[in-house]
Write a structure and sequence with these properties.
Layout lengths: L1 E4 L2 E4 L13 E4 L8 E4 L24 E8 L5 E8 L2
Antiparallel strand pairs: 1-2, 3-4, 4-5, 5-6
């Protein structure tokens, strides 16, 4: 897959989420993160994301934070949990 942002084109592998088989989508991470383009599962029904707000320990009860499945192409597509706001 080719991803173009701000005139820069990045060639990425076509990847799918191992939890729901949804194609991962490219996302340009904030510059402060140290990441470039990462791949994220944006499926709100993904089992990894659905209910993930209950999996984060030591967070406030009124917090709506959860985790999305993501991979970093610059690190051999190593998976990680991307902090996200849950619906």
């Amino acid at each position: 897959m080719k991803h173009t942002y701000a005139g820069v084109t990045t060639e990425l592998e076509d990847r799918v989420c191992p939890h729901c088989n949804t194609p991962l989508e490219p996302w340009v991470a904030p510059p402060q993160s140290g990441w470039g383009v990462i791949l994220v599962c944006n499926n709100n029904d993904c089992p990894h994301y659905d209910g993930s707000d209950d999996d984060i320990t030591n967070k406030r009860d009124d917090s709506n934070l959860g985790c999305r499945y993501a991979e970093n192409p610059d690190n051999g597509y190593k998976p990680f949990n991307l902090l996200a706001v849950c619906r």
